[in-house]
Specification:
CATH topology: Jelly Rolls
Largest sheet: 8 strands, antiparallel
Number of helices: 0
CATH architecture: Sandwich
CATH superfamily: Jelly Rolls
Strand content: over 45%
Helix content: under 10%
């Protein structure tokens, strides 16, 4: 059975639901939602803030299996620690990319001396079957491929788009792109028609393929598209994600991802800690 993809181009608006991430941070959870469990290998998407950074983000150590975590900030700063010994601050324009594989424990928190707003997204990428138990790894990319299309700024987080390729280690085909549109901005993006795609409004509102969507809304586009036209009347910040439709739905429980429930730990987690 072919995942949850819709064959051919569509326009399906998916409003995010609110979820509590830690003691004081309410996030907009765009994936998984209802029948739309994933977009390509992207299987989890939280959009948070902008909120005051002090005390907003405090995710204590928690495990992951069978996935990659992706952290991308528009404002603020976070401190990442993991069981490999990694200690890494991340700021806007930088990418934290962690491969859980057979298992890793990590934490993320706003630095105690941090001030101002915190705003960003956290995503999961499901690892393909032959890589779900690969050794864990952590990458921090201080610079990423960027392209200016007039006054529109494109930053490639993951995969390939046009002539750009992200340095982040991907184990399956995918794309993740930050699009910063100015007032009155317009851009046409080349797409891989074998991918299904979706676009999230992280700031402001925009129009994609003739369909308006606003803050916190995920617009699912289906597959079969060779390009995507984006525009905005006022400044907007968008996130495009995509990849080949999964051949079958994933099994997801707590912070773990697998091909079926038998791949996931059989015992309940010791505490219902937050995802991240």
């Amino acid at each position: 059975m072919r995942g949850t993809a819709t064959v051919g181009p569509v326009l399906e608006l998916i409003p995010a639901r609110r979820a509590l991430l830690g003691p004081g941070l309410v996030v907009r959870r765009a994936l998984p939602r209802g029948a739309r469990r994933s977009v390509g290998p992207w299987c989890f998407l939280d959009h948070f803030g902008p909120v005051e950074a002090a005390g907003a983000m405090n995710l204590p150590p928690h495990p992951h299996i069978g996935l990659q975590t992706v952290t991308w900030l528009l404002e603020g700063e976070l401190l990442h620690r993991d069981s490999l010994g990694s200690v890494q601050r991340i700021r806007p324009g930088q990418l934290n990319w962690m491969t859980a594989g057979e298992g890793i424990v990590h934490s993320e928190e706003a630095p105690p001396e941090g001030a101002g707003a915190l705003h960003g997204v956290q995503l999961w990428v499901a690892l393909p079957p032959d890589r779900r138990r690969c050794p864990p790894a952590f990458e921090h990319h201080a610079t990423l491929p960027r392209l200016a299309e007039g006054a529109t700024a494109l930053t490639l987080l993951a995969g390939r788009l046009g002539g750009m390729e992200s340095p982040a280690t991907a184990h399956s085909p995918l794309v993740g792109l930050d699009v910063a549109l100015p007032s009155g901005g317009r851009v046409r993006l080349p797409l891989d028609p074998s991918f299904e795609h979706a676009v999230l409004a992280m700031e402001g509102s925009a129009d994609a393929a003739g369909h308006a969507f606003g803050l916190g809304e995920l617009l699912y586009l289906g597959d079969g598209r060779h390009h995507l036209d984006l525009s905005a009347d006022e400044p907007a910040r968008l996130l495009l994600i995509g990849g080949p439709p999964l051949p079958a739905p994933l099994a997801m429980w707590w912070n773990f991802v697998g091909g079926d429930r038998e791949e996931l730990p059989p015992e309940p987690a010791p505490s219902p800690g937050p995802r991240g």
